[in-house]
Design brief:
It comes from Lysobacter yangpyeongensis. The protein is globular, with a radius of gyration of 37 Å. By secondary structure, the chain is mainly β. It is built from 4 helices and 57 strands. Helix 2 crosses helix 3. The strands form 10 sheets. It has a 24-stranded antiparallel barrel. A 6-stranded mixed sheet has the order 6-4-3-2-8-7.
Length: about 775
């Protein structure tokens, strides 16, 4: 950052300048002199007797202020009011009406442009006001809304083996939503060998407050922990900070670049050779805060070009990590309730009461502090951690936690390092636990946790030679057994094909390496071919070929074929069809070998109740929008500039895959509407609350247009340009041959006309039941007094 701290002190001085001048007086003078400001002493009135007043335009560092100020000129001396100079950010103090002699300001150079009546001032750039270029918030905050309705998601699956009994399962989710939040219940019904009946998963109420960035939950939930602790399922209540509901807020520190421009200039910013911003600059110091949401290491090239074409280029390295919180940001969560047990097997199995809470705080842009605590009967846990940026060299994290289960005390330590750039990235995380350490995840059954976990990964971009990945994993289980695994991968694109090669080895096993080779080829028209070869650590080979065609984005038919030779020498095959339309998607298929095969089928979709109707749809995982055009069918609708469908016979279209909390653009193609249809709005931006839906209404109405021929009382066409006023106050102009065009007329109409001979009126009836343009007249416009 160039000069940021120096400007900060100066800005604070300017911010409180009026208060210091009025109250602290001399103290303000001493303090602000440290930034080269100057206090004005009113001149002797006798010295102004011969001064000649002039009104001149001020120009500061070649930038016109577009203001004309009163100047007293006496010989070669010029006096200007303090208030006029201070209005442009110049550091002079005193009463606004006091006069300052420009010749007495040591830091100021000036000249008089007599021909153009301008006073040209030259000021050190660092004495001008700070200008902030751009803003961290790219997307203006648009409050998210929700209608009232219900969603029923379903996923039915049938599996029919040739050598066993048929099994059926129907997973479902029922969600009620409104401005008060959402209530969700999910589960699955199974019928077949091993289990029959309904299994409940989760039942929860959730409400999010975007203004405070908080989410409240009650019911079944998963605790929200930190990277160095576990999460558990609870049945209870919780509150947590939720930055996801505010897409306009950037929680991690972005680089801020500062500099100075002596004269009006243009600022260009390049990252990785790409221009990402270009803005005009006023003279003075500037701070750039409009960089994109980047992550990792890089270099920014900041180029300023002045009005003479002179350029100054500065290269500024940076490192950005989303694992940090920006200065002053706080993230937290707390949940309390009963531990969920036998999840997925028992519907209402809850154990002991427990509470868990986490907190993160951005102490500065370089340091984020963390803490976590858990409590249950016979278990207490507490820990602290930190994430710190190492300048341009990555991010390091460390944590320490201590637990007590009954009389047993244990501890956990964790340390890690991450670095990412365009060329390569590395990540190392090492966690140690002693034998007695326990948390809520190990609490119910008294189990112990792994003693050590070491993960080290790396990725290298070799550009035209592809990408290489490395990994090393070392895990020591609770019983002391150890497993170490290493892997190596390489991938590269070749035109319309992609190759991926990987190898892995258990370093505690003498059986050697296992290998895999994948080759994917795009054949166009949504078709792809895939070939794969695997060799396991025992030297057994597996060969597989697949050929498929994807379903079109907006619905249609897709298929997939595959054959394989298994390591034991048997042959395996599979085939499937996939069909999707706006209402649901269906899949059927068969797979097996020479001895047995299995036929399966799947149906997935949603039913939505909203705005007085029930709408079938593809599965809705989060938010949706119901577009309505007031009963007008066949209207084409776009979401974020992409065509998503046309309204049905009732003038409605459901958009099932909307991004929650984001103010997306919805529009109708007005140019394709019939001429007799009108709407006051063709485009809207709407943000929808998570887990809910909203109605986006485009009010369309059918209108009857009319072409009216108007004559005066002598039978001559009304003159061109004559103004006509409709009953609702709209003013229209009459054209050639007395023709008046009205976009909308009613059954009975009265129009007032400002004729050259005086005001007159025409009255007529129109058939509004037809979309054709009505041809009316000629009508005689009669003076109001004769009606």
């Amino acid at each position: 950052m160039i000069g940021a701290r120096r400007h900060l002190a100066r800005e604070r001085c300017r911010r409180y300048r009026p208060l210091w001048s009025a109250i602290l007086g001399g103290l303000a003078t001493v303090t602000c002199l440290s930034v080269q400001a100057q206090v004005v002493t009113p001149p002797d009135p006798a010295s102004l007797d011969d001064a000649q007043p002039q009104y001149l335009e001020l120009v500061v560092n070649q930038k016109s202020t577009r203001k004309v100020v009163r100047v007293l000129r006496s010989g070669d001396g010029f006096r200007v009011a303090v208030g006029d100079l201070r209005a442009f950010g110049l550091p002079v103090f005193g009463n606004d009406s006091d006069l300052v002699t420009l010749n007495d300001l040591s830091w100021l150079k000036f000249s008089y442009d007599e021909n153009n009546l301008r006073l040209l001032l030259e000021v050190p750039a660092d004495m001008l006001p700070m200008q902030y270029v751009g803003d961290y918030r790219r997307n203006a905050y648009e409050p998210a809304t929700s209608g009232t309705g219900a969603i029923f998601n379903y996923d039915a699956f049938v599996n029919a083996p040739s050598d066993a009994s048929t099994t059926t399962s129907i997973a479902n989710e029922l969600r009620l939503f409104g401005p008060w939040g959402s209530i969700t219940s999910s589960g699955t019904y199974s019928y077949g060998p091993g289990r029959n009946g309904y299994t409940r998963f989760d039942t929860r109420w959730e409400y999010s407050d975007p203004a405070r960035m908080l989410t409240f939950e009650a019911g079944d939930m998963i605790t929200r922990g930190l990277s160095w602790n576990s999460t558990v399922r609870l049945g209870g209540v919780g509150v947590s900070r939720n930055f996801a509901i505010r897409p306009d807020v950037v929680t991690y520190p972005l680089p801020v670049f500062s500099g100075e421009a002596a004269v009006p200039s243009t600022l260009d910013v390049f990252i990785a050779g790409q221009k990402i911003d270009s803005r005009p600059l006023e003279p003075g110091p500037f701070t750039l805060t409009s960089l994109p949401y980047i992550n990792g290491a890089g270099e920014a090239v900041v180029v300023t070009t002045d009005v003479m074409g002179r350029q100054v280029s500065t290269t500024l390295p940076f490192y950005v990590s989303s694992s940090l919180l920006a200065d002053g940001f706080m993230d937290y969560s707390i949940a309390a309730g009963a531990l969920r047990q036998e999840y997925g097997r028992e519907n209402f199995a809850y154990g002991d009461a427990a509470v868990a809470g986490s907190l993160r705080y951005g102490l500065s842009d370089r340091l984020t502090l963390e803490t976590h605590a858990e409590h249950a009967q016979g278990l207490q846990l507490g820990g602290v951690g930190a994430v710190m940026a190492l300048g341009h060299y990555g991010v390091v994290n460390a944590s320490y936690a201590s637990s007590q289960r009954n009389d047993d005390r244990g501890r956990q330590t964790s340390v890690g390092y991450q670095y990412s750039s365009r060329r390569f990235s590395v990540a190392i995380q090492d966690t140690h636990r002693d034998r007695l350490y326990a948390d809520l995840a190990a609490y119910p059954d008294g189990s112990t946790m792994s003693r050590r976990t070491l993960q080290a990964t790396g990725a290298f971009n070799l550009f035209s030679f592809g990408n290489v990945g490395l990994g090393y994993f070392d895990i020591e289980a609770a019983d002391g057994t150890r497993s170490r695994l290493g892997n190596l991968s390489w991938s590269r694109s070749f035109g319309n094909s992609y190759v991926y090669l990987s190898g892995s080895r258990d370093l505690d096993d003498d059986n050697g390496w296992s290998f895999g080779l994948q080759w994917l080829v795009s054949l166009g028209d949504r078709r792809t071919a895939h070939a794969g070869y695997d060799r396991n650590r025992f030297g057994k080979n597996r060969l597989r070929f697949d050929y498929d065609q994807a379903v079109p984005t907006y619905g249609g038919l897709g298929w997939q074929l595959g054959v394989a030779r298994e390591p034991d020498g048997s042959r395996y095959g599979q085939a499937g069809l996939h069909w999707r339309n706006p209402n649901l998607q269906l899949r059927v298929g068969v797979y097996g070998d020479e001895d047995a095969h299995t036929v399966w089928g799947n149906a997935t979709g949603s039913l939505v109740w909203m705005d007085g109707g029930i709408f079938p749809s593809n599965r809705i995982n989060d938010a949706f929008v119901l577009v309505t055009t007031d009963g007008q069918p066949g209207v084409r609708v776009r979401y974020e500039n992409q065509l998503v469908g046309t309204t049905d016979r009732n003038g409605r279209l459901l958009v099932p895959w909307v991004t929650a909390w984001y103010a997306a653009k919805y529009e109708i193609e007005a140019e394709r509407l019939p001429a007799y249809m009108q709407t006051p709005v063709v485009e809207q931006r709407v943000a929808v609350r998570g887990g809910s839906g909203q109605v986006v209404r485009f009010p369309l109405r059918a209108v009857t247009s009319a072409v009216i021929t108007v004559h005066d009382e002598q039978g001559n066409p009304m003159p061109v340009g004559t103004v006509a006023t409709t009953a609702d106050g709209q003013r229209r102009t009459i054209g050639w041959d007395g023709v008046l065009y009205l976009e909308s007329v009613g059954a009975d109409n009265e129009i007032s006309i400002d004729a050259p001979t005086g005001r007159c009126v025409i009255r007529f009836e129109a058939d509004t039941g037809t979309p054709q343009v009505a041809q009316i007249g000629p009508l005689v416009c009669r003076a109001e007094a004769r009606l």
